[in-house]
Amino acid sequence: MDEIAPAAPGPGVPPPAMLTPPAPHRGRRGWLAWLVYVTCFGGAIYFAIHGARALSGEGSDDEVKAQVYASIGKLDETGFARMGKPEPGDWLDRFQETPQSMGRYRLSTPVRPTKDRRTVVLQPLGPMNEEQTKVVEAMRDYAEIFFQLPARVADSLPLEIGGKSEALTRKIPLGNRHGTYDTQYDAEKILDEILAKKLPDDAVVYLGVTMQDLWADNLNFVFGLGSFGRRVGVYSLARYYPEFWGKVRKDGDEIMGLRRSCKVLNHEAGHMFGLSHCVFYHCSMNGSNSLAETDRAPIHFCPLCHRKLQWNIGFDANKRYEALRDFYAKHEMAEEAEWMKGRIERWKEIATKDAIENGTAIVPEE
Ligand SMILES: [Zn+2]
Ligand SMILES: [Zn+2]
Question: From 120, 162, 229, 342, which residue has the greatest number of CB atoms within 10 Å?
Answer without folding.
Answer: 120
